[in-house]
Amino acid sequence: MCAVDLGLTNSAVCSVIDATGTVLGRTFIDQPKEKDRLQTLTNKLRKAQRASGRIPAPNFWRQINGYQQHIVCYTSHEIVKFASKHGCDVIVFEYLGRMKIPKGFYGARKLRFKLHGWRKIGIQNKVEEMAHCLGMRISRINPRNTSALAFDGSGKVERNSKKDLATFSTGKVYHSDLSASYNIGARYFIRAFQKSISETKWLSLQAKVPELAIRTSQTLSSFISLHHALGLPQEA
């Protein structure tokens, strides 16, 4: 299974995880040059609009849309290529709808501008179209706390100003998007195991692994603990 965390810092961070919770591969996908050019063009457009009002500016929009489309296509191709290389059966995303910015959030205007140009749904749709052609499935999981919780089960993390690094409560520093991708994959497998067993057995497993009771608290550590509780054999 290929777990994908789409973000603003990196276009996508992907991890390949098997049914035992072992991470078999990981990759970072980004287009820094294209994003920098896109930011420059957008700033020029805003400057022109402040001076002249809401002008059509077709040349600006043609270039802006071109860069955005390039980012969507390149990111989608790299995700599918990575999943195909590792023989994945399914690609897992988060449900990413409209994101709300908390009241009084510092830098809300800048973040709102970034979210406006984020083509998360376009990437997911493109990946789904390409994956189905190769016989791979697409799945989505609840995104709540995937980035906020450490994959090793140590609890909440503290993220730096750029939001790319996370400090665990144990003092360990890890890439926040990579940790989130592990949690995305874990939640997919936990949901799959839950559907395959009876409710009585699932309740007994929750007694052994309490964090399974709340879906938004599940991490990679939770899935590994579930695997041990089920008594399944480990890979060498």
What is the 3D form?
A: elongated
Q: What is the average per-residue confidence, as pLDDT, rounded to a whole number?
A: 86
Q: Strand count, sense and closure of the main sheet?
A: 5 strands, mixed
Q: Care to count the β-strands?
A: 8
Strand order of the largest sheet: 3-2-1-4-5
**Domains counted in the coordinates: how many?**
1
Reading the helices and strands in chain order gives EEEHHEHHEEEEHHH
> What fraction of residues sit in β-strands?
15-25%
Category from helices, strands and their pairing: alpha/beta
Helix content: 40-55%
Radius of gyration, taken over Cα atoms and rounded to an integer in Å: 20 Å
Low-confidence stretches: none
Query: CA-to-CA gap between the ends?
Result: 19 Å
Q: Tally the helices.
A: 7
Keywords:
236 residues; alpha/beta; three-stranded antiparallel beta sheet; 7 helices; 48% helix; elongated
Structure, described:
The structure is a single chain. The protein has 7 helices and 8 strands. Strands 3-2-1-4-5 form a 5-stranded mixed β-sheet, with helices on both faces. It has 236 residues and is α/β, with parallel strands linked by helices. Strand 1 and strand 2 form a beta hairpin. It is 48% helix and 15% strand. It has one domain.
